[in-house]
Design goal:
Number of strands: 0
Helix content: over 70%
Radius of gyration: 13 Å
């Protein structure tokens, strides 16, 4: 379970870096909004997995 959480967090960080590094908000607003939506979904998935991982 920890491995899955780590992979999701890594993917989220990479997407955030890509959006910031390439200035997607200025160059391609549609692609930027799609990537930001994916980041939001990843955050929700990470939160869900972490809460399920804590329960005995």
């Amino acid at each position: 379970m920890d491995y899955a959480i780590d992979m999701l967090e890594t993917h989220k960080k990479n997407l955030e870096k890509h959006v910031k590094k390439t200035n997607l908000m200025k160059t391609d607003m549609r692609e930027a909004s799609q990537k930001l939506h994916r980041i939001t979904e990843l955050k929700k998935a990470i939160k869900t997995l972490k809460s399920k991982n804590r329960k005995p």
